[in-house]
Design a protein that fits this description.
2 copies of one chain form a homodimer. Chain A is α+β, with helices and mostly antiparallel strands. Chain A has 3 domains: about 180 residues, Glycosyltransferase, CATH 1.50.10.10; about 150 residues, Jelly Rolls, CATH 2.60.120.260; about 160 residues, Glycosyltransferase (Alpha/alpha barrel), CATH 1.50.10. Helix content of chain A is about 40%, strand content about 20%. In chain A, strands 2, 3, 4, 5, 6, 7, 8, 9 and 10 form a 9-stranded antiparallel beta sheet that branches. In chain A, strands 11-13-14 form a 3-stranded antiparallel beta sheet. In chain A, strand 15 and strand 16 form a beta hairpin. The longest helix of chain A is centred in the C-terminal third of the chain and has 21 residues. Chain A is globular, with a radius of gyration of 25 Å. At the A-B interface, strand 7 and strand 14 of A face strand 7 and strand 14 of B. Chains A, B: GO terms for molecular function: hydrolase activity.
Chain lengths: ~525, ~525
């Protein structure tokens, strides 16, 4: 790892104080199998909070608290024994769920390929009662199941209180209210998107507060764009930029993600598109904040990423597609990444050139302008299939949604042909589709870019609007309206149901609909 | 509860600082089924500690550490990831066992009637690695199993260190070494008895540091007697006496046990014999410590216990035997408690009268002397069966070991006839036998009392000596050489394998064999 301690120190000096709010459970529920409901589960109220606190529980009893909204925070329990003095520890099992499936489907059934350690549960022994317990780990949940595994024959346990101290570095008072004139469902979509962003805003922009709880640059770029139009926490973006800049892979490439603890360190994951996005992120940050000092300090790293990205071009000027690289683009095992990677390179070169101009780095600006020209030409010459009217990718000349979307965003074609490309994409949908909200974001962004605003809004409604219909309190990592149990990990249980890259409806609404 | 805050405050001012020593694992073992071994399990070394620290573990791996001796204390783990930066929490299951059965028999198989919360296990999620973890709960164990439930595909986990900070309020440097002239097996029995006492000596004399972790007066009496000849921690006995004196049941009866946390409080369990033992405990404490101030302050409570005990006499002068009382005596469902209860009353009246004399309470001394005479006469008249040569108990005139032993200890008969009673007991053993080391202690004590020293030593060897043969690191709560899987709780797993009332071989050795 290339470590620039000066930059890392600047990042660490920007660790925000988190804002806290206390949330209480709203009702007791049960989760019921229902083929009609999302993922086959719906909830039903079984008891009020008042009834619950009057009750006491013995061995084998259990209940499910519904906090009424998605939360990220620290849980406290007030426990009171009922009966004789407790003569044995209390043994509880706690299960936290963002979604009803996590409460209904036993974690022991999990057989996915991501670590089962992400499933939020605890086995708790309480040696001394009554007790005020503050659990040390952070949970991400709306539902909390408590199984009383054992008390003793001499006592039962009552729950005087269970609460959650929710945390975020997003300050809702900085978010401007939407005009009342916007339709109710758009305002609701904005609210949920902002809540999604808020719950991901911690001491960095996390990708998902349940899983992975890390700063990924692909997520950061979208979160920052939404943040500039909502919470406007510029320092949090700045902290994240310094973290990426301060810890790079051996050849200077910005890592795909970084960890904060026990001390800041970079992951060993290298993604072609994510490294390039460092330049786009810095461009966007400067545009939003006008913080010239940071932009100037980090410019060399952004420029370096573009130079490293350019090194991947073959002698035709096209990104080499072989087994030596990873380019994220979307969760799709058959998707060829050459054309999307080429488009991301171009997209980022353009933002880099613009930032170089703003900072008066004329020599680098002009170098980048030259590269933009060459890469654009090569793209049109080698990746554009005039006959089919689509960009192709890889040796098999794959035509995918991702390639067209990213080429539209890279503005390789002039505006009218760019719009025609998107119209053609809608009219003649390729079979290699989109799977993540992250990819879906770029699709909607491309529609807005080429002036297809109605279609963009319709697609937002069909995607994030449908998530709302399906019960989203925050927007999800993964969603396919046509296959609602989809998980690339082998199980619904480990999907993140509050995920950074899904927070962008507020960005669209506030950028394009106001 | 009758609360005398002044007495409780005195008890709390005597909370001892615990001595700590650090223990390290000695080897890695596996537990193997073996019909010949105690409880069907034996251990076998599989790896050295040096080999273990070089190793790394992934999902599904597990190992068992053997610390080489019984420990009561706090466990720390040093964890180091191996591979890529950890991208998911580490999920561990920890299982602690005093005995191999606790490692070999899954806790999920437990079906006893005591709370399963006593079984020592933890589910541990470690969000940040590397990590130094100090587990907050106290464990009681020799063996520690670690199951690595999950890491992630990107990393494994290595254990740089696992250690235990063992705690006790017993200071081994105060224990006088035994003369070298005593046989090796007696010295070994003494060592294990002292270790048992030491591990039970915490901020009170606990009955068992694994289970129940409470101060019971029946255990206290024996622990204190052993303590006066070993650790000589008089203040700890004093603390316990003040706890019992300061918190009594509504009619003034000393509770059978008390709890220390969250603040000192008495249990609602009332045992006829245990309440009377308060007077015996105070007598013994004064004899050992000559602390007249404490004896004088607590005398009225001791005297009150004797008065309450006397109230149970019917108009014949015999302890009423009906469904309204509990008298512990031994874990034996068929044992009638009338004669043992009568004997304990007499035993305690005698110690009370002696203490009253020492303290110059002549009026109370003379009252007690009168009662001793009356109770003795009634005992001989109504409970002694001249024809059978045994004391009988209850409506069915049950003849049990417990009745004879306690009558011998109460010295109802003159010395020669008392010795003859014990001889007859050995020659014509009643079918209602003894089940606990607690009862067995009183049996051996009675043999020493009546001058049958060789038989007493033989019985010690046959009981505690056999426990050593069966692998005891500390002496056990329950042991029946004829039925080694015995548990009154429905499972071996919840038996306490370091138990106060089993620590008395050191008392016998140091009182009678030196």
């Amino acid at each position: 790892m290339l470590m620039d301690q000066n930059l890392v120190d600047k990042a660490e000096a920007l660790i925000p104080e988190l804002r806290t709010t206390t949330a209480a459970p709203q009702r007791l529920i049960e989760v019921i199998a229902d083929e009609e409901a999302f993922q086959g589960w719906r909830t039903q109220t079984v008891q009020t909070i008042g009834e619950w606190t009057e009750q006491s529980y013995g061995k084998g009893d259990s209940f499910v608290l519904d906090f009424g909204d998605h939360l990220v925070g620290y849980v406290s329990l007030s426990l009171k024994p009922v009966g004789s003095p407790p003569d044995a520890p209390l043994k509880l099992k706690l299960t936290f769920g963002e979604m009803p499936c996590e409460i209904a489907e036993p974690f022991s059934s999990y057989n996915g390929w991501l670590s089962s350690s992400w499933l939020q549960e605890e086995l708790l022994f309480v040696d001394v009662l009554p007790a005020e317990i503050k659990l040390p780990r952070r949970y991400c949940f709306r539902y909390m199941k408590i199984d009383v595994l054992d008390t003793s024959v001499k006592y039962k346990i009552a729950f005087e209180n269970v609460s959650c101290e929710a945390v975020s570095s997003g300050d809702p008072s900085r978010v401007e209210p939407l005009p009342e004139s916007l339709p109710e469902h758009i305002r609701e979509m904005d609210r949920i998107a902002i809540k999604t962003l808020q719950d991901c805003m911690q001491t960095v922009f996390e990708d998902g507060p349940k899983r992975d709880r890390r700063l990924w640059i692909g997520d950061l770029r979208l979160q920052a764009q939404a943040n500039y139009l909502t919470f406007r926490n510029y320092d949090l973006v700045r902290r994240c930029l310094y973290l990426f800049a301060g810890m790079r892979l051996e050849d200077g490439t910005v890592a795909a993600c970084v960890f904060e603890k026990p001390k800041a360190h970079a992951d060993d994951t290298r993604l072609y598109d994510y490294a390039l996005f460092f330049a786009a992120c810095l461009h966007d940050y400067y545009e939003a904040s006008r913080d010239r000092e940071t932009a100037e300090e980090l410019w060399p790293i952004a420029y370096e990423q573009l130079r490293i990205g350019l090194r991947r071009l073959d002698d035709r000027g096209v990104v080499a597609d072989d087994s030596t690289w990873w380019c994220f683009t979307d969760w799709h095992s058959e998707l060829n990444k050459q054309a999307p990677g080429q488009a991301v390179l171009l997209y980022c070169l353009k933002r880099g050139a613009e930032l170089a101009g703003s900072l008066g780095r004329t020599e680098e600006q002009s170098f980048l302008a030259g590269q933009i020209g060459q890469v654009s030409s090569a793209t049109l010459r080698y990746l554009w299939d005039e006959e089919r009217g689509f960009f192709v990718s890889g040796a098999d000349k794959q035509i995918s949604w991702a390639s067209q979307v990213w080429m539209a965003l890279a503005e390789v074609l002039p505006p009218d042909r760019n719009a025609a490309l998107m119209d053609r994409l809608l009219a003649e949908p390729p079979s290699i589709g989109m799977t993540t909200p992250y990819m879906y974001h770029h699709f909607v962004e491309a529609l807005f870019l080429v002036g297809r605003k109605d279609e963009a809004v319709a697609r937002m409604n069909a995607y994030w609007g449908e998530m709302i219909e399906d019960g989203a309190d925050t927007f999800w990592e993964l969603y396919n309206p046509a296959d609602k149990k989809l998980s690339p990990y082998g199980s619904n249980l480990v999907n993140s149901y509050c995920h950074a890259w899904s927070c962008t409806p507020t960005y669209f609404i506030r950028k394009y609909l106001m």
